[in-house]
Design brief:
Blueprint (H helix, E strand, L loop, with lengths): L14 E10 L4 E11 L5 E2 L2 H12 L7 E4 L2 E4 L3 H6 L8 E7 L2 E6 L1
Antiparallel strand pairs: 1-2, 2-3, 4-5, 6-7
Length: 110
Amino acid sequence: MEKKELECGFCGGKTELKCESLELLNGKVVLKQQPYYKCKKCKKEFVSSEQMKETEKQINTFYVSRPIVSTGRSLAITIPTDLAKFYDLKKGEKVQLIPESRHSLKVKIT
């Protein structure tokens, strides 16, 4: 449970708990209602270590799910337009598929 107030580590003033959405990757990923503290005296904003760990956990669990499709005699996985734009991928460019384990496949842009 979040504490409603903390002492500001910068000036010693009182803080209040606030929440707002955090946008990552130019707004492509939005974490809604992320908690943070704002000092009423010096107006600095900061997060507690617990809040940072929770946000980090949410970021690390971000993924895109795509179906495997058939194309000719091969199988293919499509890349969503937003990700292709973010990584500046173009048709004909190559990527490396790197097996990491039986259940993990890494994609490296070459």
